[in-house]
Amino acid sequence: MSGWRRLNIGIVGGGIGGMSVAIALRRAGHIVTIYERSDFAGEVGASVSCAANGTRWLHEWGVDVAKGDPVVLRKLINRDWKTGEPVSVYDLGDYEERWGYVYNMFHRQYMHAMLNDSALGEGEGHPATLKVDHRCRDIDLITNTITFENGVLAQHDLIVGADGIGSAVRGILGIKPEKKPADSSCLHTNISTEEAVRLGLVDYSQDNALEYWGGQEGKWDKIVLSPCNGGKLLSYYCFFPREQGDYSTQSWGADERPVEELLQPYPALDRQVFDHLAIGKEIKPWRLWVHNPYPYIHRGRVCLLGDAGHPMMPHQSQGACMAIEDAAALGILLSPRYFDGDVSQALAVYEEVRLPRATRVQAAAAKAAYNINERIGFSFNKDIPTYKVEDPKKVLTIEEMNAYDMYQDVEEKLAAKRHAAYTDKFICGLPVGLELPNGITIGD
Ligand SMILES: Cc1cc2nc3c(=O)[nH]c(=O)nc-3n(C[C@H](O)[C@H](O)[C@H](O)COP(=O)(O)OP(=O)(O)OC[C@H]3O[C@@H](n4cnc5c(N)ncnc54)[C@H](O)[C@@H]3O)c2cc1C
Ligand SMILES: *[C@@H]1O[C@H](CO)[C@@H](O)[C@H](O)[C@H]1NC(C)=O
Ligand SMILES: *[C@@H]1O[C@H](CO)[C@@H](O)[C@H](O)[C@H]1NC(C)=O
Ligand SMILES: CC(=O)N[C@H]1CO[C@H](CO)[C@@H](O)[C@@H]1O
């Protein structure tokens, strides 16, 4: 594109989103600096899943996915709360064949290290620089200069706020989140497969599945099991009503909780999984806040990415994927093929491409919190007796997530901005004529 120029880009936050966008932007030819507030860029927490449309970008960027030691998911299994019998199963057997990429379950620390290598290591483009102990305090939106708590100033052509759900950059852009603590609480625990097997418990790692107990009864109680580290570690997210334990002001740094606290909300739970929880280690609360969608995610030459721009409930397992897609969108918009040197225009299109899609997933994630039939995948299993959704035409489908073509979406929106013709048969990145299982046909 004529007018393309190399930008000097600053990224605030070195989490999954910050690392991903650093990869996309260095590959697009830009000079990238990541500023992280803590003294190391790492990750807390355990499992994090990455569906085809996230995995797709990891491959496009040449990331060494094996380094993340993923479990490739074969099934989504929803089990009865009391008996553990499967009630709704979504088979991912033909998933790679259909969508071109697998559904990975990573361990967070491994995933972060994998992205870190691709952002800072050898490879296409200029390796990004990571500056730790840099906490963003303010940004001058006229000169595009960041002020850090340590007194350092840094001016950039473009600034990306990838600083998570508590984003400082978001406040600087004048966005005041409407938010409330979620009605459910979440405790996370780790179980070693080896220990479970030694004690004669069920070996869930054999299923290679993301497994859910509950979710059909319109209750907040739900157990989510994700196998990671090649199946050696079982990561459990355990949800219950907030009245039974309020952790909304806790953070990861908080102390571990006693196992009794984890078991207490679940007297009627299937004993097979209950026995797993009983040997749980490193039990920690994960605070959950529901944010309404923000009105915008950019101003001038500053934009938001990942949880900073659209934090969501974990119930569609899409938070990390959405951060990766944001990164991909910026990488495309600022690539030699599309970028004409106008940063504000590129960010305006970024917002038009990303905000509607992320907002849709955000809303679907909030719904799936109390009704698992709203979760992508299970939303397809309409024939089970307890299937019920708020509005069948609005359920989020795998087709919509994976048949989406971001290049087309970008081209359509750029063409409108540049008063150019767009003639391909796509609307917002979805092919005209595509029939979604929720009964919607694109273009009708
Ligand atoms: C219970 C639970 C389960 C989840 N499971 C999944 C899942 O299975 N799949 C999935 O896709 N997603 C999942 N998610 C969501 C996922 O964790 C997030 O969406 C994703 O990690 C967001 O990445 P991020 O980089 O935007 O933010 P973060 O990971 O929060 O990173 C922000 C970074 O910015 C730094 N920072 C913050 N403030 C500043 C500042 N002022 N200056 C400089 N640096 C700063 C922080 O230290 C941090 O390193 C889950 C979330 C929850 C709550
Ligand atoms: C276990 O879980 C905690 C959070 O509960 C996480 O921070 C930790 O890294 C996990 N440990 C392992 C070995 O994965
Ligand atoms: C990140 O990558 C750099 C360069 O490859 C390496 O020196 C550093 O140790 C890595 N950090 C982490 C936390 O993985
Ligand atoms: C945004 C995006 O990457 N969409 C892709 C999702 O996966 C399908 C199938 O691999 C691709 O065709 C889309 O382009």
UniProtKB/TrEMBL annotation:
Q: Which UniProt keywords apply?
A: FAD, Flavoprotein, Membrane, Monooxygenase, Oxidoreductase, Transmembrane, Transmembrane helix
Molecular functions (GO terms):
FAD binding; monooxygenase activity
Annotated signal sequence range: none
Q: Pfam families, per this entry? A: FAD_binding_3 (PF01494)
User: Domain FAD-binding: where?
Assistant: 8-362
- Does this entry carry the keyword Ribonucleoprotein? no
InterPro entries, alphabetized: FAD-bd, FAD-dep_Monooxygenase_BioMet, FAD/NAD-bd_sf
Say which family it is in: Belongs to the paxM FAD-dependent monooxygenase family.
Name-wise, this protein is FAD-binding domain-containing protein
